[in-house]
Input
Amino acid sequence: MNPITMQLVADKYIQMALEEDINNEDVSTNAVMPEYKKGEVQLICKEDGIIAGLAVFERVFTLLDPATKVNCSVKDGDAVTKGEVIGVVTGDIRVLLSGERTALNYLQRMSGIATYTRSVVKLLEGTKTKLLDTRKTTPGMRVFEKYAVRVGGGGNHRYNLSDGVLLKDNHIDAAGGVTQAVHAAREYAPFVRKIEVETENLDMVREAVEAGADIIMLDNMTPDVMAEAVQIINGRAETECSGNITKENIKTIASLGVDYVSSGALTHSAPILDVSLKHLSVIKEL
Output
């Protein structure tokens, strides 16, 4: 995550997370460490995976105290192994203790998403199909979770409702049909915006093609119906498959020739990657 994104977007969420955890004081830390002492603690992996979120992890500590130093031997996207010491955090022991949980929450969550995403991306190797995330993200965590998907090798669908036109079933119902919805979107949206339409059956697919949709989402269709839909579209629009995507069926879906597969599971169901801060020690200063 680049410094501009960190300061413009991420800092406010990290600050909120810290305020959630320390709304007055860290009673435990202040009890055992009433004044400044310099210390260091190791960042250790407790299972194999893909690391993601190191800059966010570091930012938690530097927001508490800019003098805190985080030195890591790996970078986002690297594979890490169980028992590996991947970094050392040095600074005011009160900061190390108070920031520990928030920093690890971010790193564990983001690394878990990157790890799960990488495992799914590998299943698509050798196909033209690209893996995308969705807006099914944890409130307040979208910027971090979507970044983690990219670290894992996946791609981002639209970031938010201002980022693109996606006409779902309720939009279509509100407009009175696929054709009406596409025409209304074409009339309203800036010309640089692509228009995507969610379809649930072959009649909707045909109507979306004729209405001039740029991307047609094949939602919750069986592989046989999806294969027929791809033939109907015949390159006149990009295709995206969504709904009940699993590791067990994703190869079958990719074999149908769809351009994209979107999966909410990348962000809403990925388990965390277990990492820990251990072996805190005091540094004696001369």
